Please model this.
Amino acid sequence: NTNISGTITLKDGTAVTKMGQGTWNMGDSTATRDEEIAALRLGVELGMNLIDTAEMYGDGRSEEMVGEAIRGIRDQVFLVSKVHPQNAGLDRITRSCEESLKRLGTDHLDLYLLHWRGKVPLEETVKGMEQLVASGKIARWGVSNLDTADMKELLRIPGGDRCAVNQVLYHLGSRGIEHELLPWQRTHKIPVMAYSPLAQAGTLRKGVTENETVREIAANHGATPLQIMLAWSIREGDIIAIPKASSGKHVTENAAAAKIRLSEEECWKLDDAFPQPAWKVPLDMI
Ligand code: NDP
Model:
């Protein structure tokens, strides 16, 4: 695929696109479903072949919609889903995974994530994940919403170092992970997958898109402020961003954002406008 938007390499050597596609709140309405499916398929064509979903999203409706979108192109897609913490114990994880596979119309996931840490001990989830790897139902596993202390604990568990990624909230308006978690993950070769890289919608995003510096940089690149947000999130080349878009227009813009290279000077200006915290702050979550 000549449009491939650039890749990063996981610990096991697998190349993954830096710009993927989120699917939270998709598949919920029959009125928009066809457009959403077309948008996802266009995204794959444009090189955003990582698709992120979860059993929790719309109680399985997101997975069902993704299943329809990837029909016939499954082999081109790096498919990610997540297990709800309540289902992350040995008694439930296999069944949860199998139900996700059924909704997605596939026989394996490329990556299965613990959605966030709940009451089930991490040891048990690691065992469950490794069993799923052994049975071929998932190619690899990772976690989501784990802060540094949890990640350290995970890596002390036998097999815990097989964690492929940690998916966490990260965008220009929320840079808390840069203080500790991101450098720690870099040291351990566990890439960050940045969720809500466009800060969803609403006031927090407005603070970024209406910022003078962001607007000026966007104008210089002939881009939108949101494209600058996306380009910024993957600027260092070792982070995967998964913006969610439900129209062809948005998907096309997001794919193009993966090709925008911000200069060092532009990054400094953005540091001034949106400084990273000077001390450790708790992991931001949605
Ligand atoms: P995003 O930050 O990706 O923002 C999505 C919003 O941005 C939508 O309203 C979308 O509109 C809009 N948008 C997308 N592209 C454009 C564009 N080019 N121009 C203008 N607007 C645009 O929010 P999400 O919270 O959805 O995060 C992305 C994904 O991350 C989720 O979908 C999910 O897969 C994952 N996630 C994981 C979490 C976790 O706990 N692990 C938590 C939160 C998210 P429209 O739909 O109309 O295109």
Observations:
- Residues 15-199+235-247 form a domain with the TIM Barrel fold (CATH 3.20.20.100).
